[in-house]
Specification:
The structure is a single chain. This protein is α/β, with parallel strands linked by helices. The protein has a single domain, classed as Response regulator (Rossmann fold, 3-Layer(aba) Sandwich), CATH 3.40.50.2300. Helices cover about 35% and strands about 10% of the residues. It is built from five helices and four strands, in the order βαβαβαβαα. A four-stranded parallel β-sheet has the order 2-1-3-4. Strand 1, helix 1 and strand 2 form a beta-alpha-beta unit. Helix 1 crosses helix 4. The radius of gyration is 16 Å and the shape is globular.
């Protein structure tokens, strides 16, 4: 991996909530070391209003956010991806495009907050919970010594993050 910022893509079927939240969190926690994007296999074309409200309340920039197709990232002029994370089970089971550069990938599945039924407070809590879980996973990812890990150790770490397991990184000499 190079000195350039890591290009990270978060995938979800509709690209309207989880992947959008993950994009915002990674861009904040990555502090310029990671540039995050999000996309969907069947994008809804609009971001869920509760996701937007949460992100705005938490001070994330939202003006440039949009629901888009993962095909944008398979094009030759797309950013060369380093990591691709699926955040919903449906997207993880779909056949993804061939990503230029053979990025590392992992499944970080989370429940869909847009499917939660209940009153406004219960639905808003589901989106806040999604943000919390993504913040934890992305925070762990951002603390990994990516450049010093071999590909197999890094893949094991990415998979463990998605399963919510403790990481066991190789000892440094």
């Amino acid at each position: 991996m190079s000195e350039r910022p890591y290009q990270v893509l978060f995938l979800c079927t509709h690209n309207s909530a989880r992947s959008i939240i993950a994009e915002c969190v990674m861009n904040r926690l990555g502090k310029g070391k990671c540039i995050a994007h999000s996309a969907g296999s069947r994008p809804r074309g609009a971001i869920h209003p509760l996701a937007l409200a949460l992100l705005e309340r938490l001070g994330y920039p939202i003006a440039a956010l949009r629901s888009k197709s993962w095909q944008e990232f398979a094009d030759p002029d797309a950013p060369r991806l380093d990591f691709v994370f699926t955040v919903c089970d449906d997207a993880a089971e779909e056949v993804c495009p061939v990503w230029p550069g053979q990025p590392m990938s992992a499944h970080w599945g989370l429940p869909d907050p847009s499917r939660v039924e209940g009153n406004d407070a219960q639905r808003a809590l589901a989106f806040a919970d999604t943000h919390r879980m993504l913040s934890q996973r992305i925070g762990i990812f951002c603390s990994l010594p990516v450049a010093s890990l071999d590909r197999l150790s890094l893949q094991r770490s990415l998979d463990a993050i998605g399963r919510g397991e403790a990481l066991s990184l190789p000892k440094r000499a």
